[in-house]
């Protein structure tokens, strides 16, 4: 299992968290997504380390920006 925390810009509410969770959860191998709206952090648990470009694409699809 791998757990990685990303910084996401633009999230401000529960709807934001739900959108990001839905998109990132759709990535193959992801088993859990935990969004901290106040801190702008998204922690992803997956079977193996994820390609950051795949995570970036999912966050962008949700309407937000992956900072790191």
UniProtKB/TrEMBL annotation:
Keywords: Metal-binding
Taxonomic superkingdom: Bacteria
Gene3D superfamilies in the cross-refs: 3.30.70.100
InterPro entries referenced in this protein's UniProt entry, alphabetically: Cu-bd, Heavy-metal-associated_CS, HMA_dom, HMA_dom_sf
CDD domains: HMA
SUPFAM superfamilies given in the database record: HMA, heavy metal-associated domain
One family name in Pfam for this protein: HMA
GO biological process: copper ion transport
The protein, known as: Heavy metal transporter
GO molecular function, one term: copper ion binding
Record domain HMA: where: 2-67
């Amino acid at each position: 299992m791998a757990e990685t925390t990303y910084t996401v810009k633009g999230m401000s509410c529960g709807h934001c968290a739900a959108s990001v969770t839905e998109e990132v959860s759709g990535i193959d191998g992801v088993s859990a997504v935990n969004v901290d709206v106040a801190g702008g952090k998204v922690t992803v648990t997956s079977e193996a380390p994820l390609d950051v470009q795949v995570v970036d694409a999912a966050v962008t699809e949700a309407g937000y920006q992956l900072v790191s």
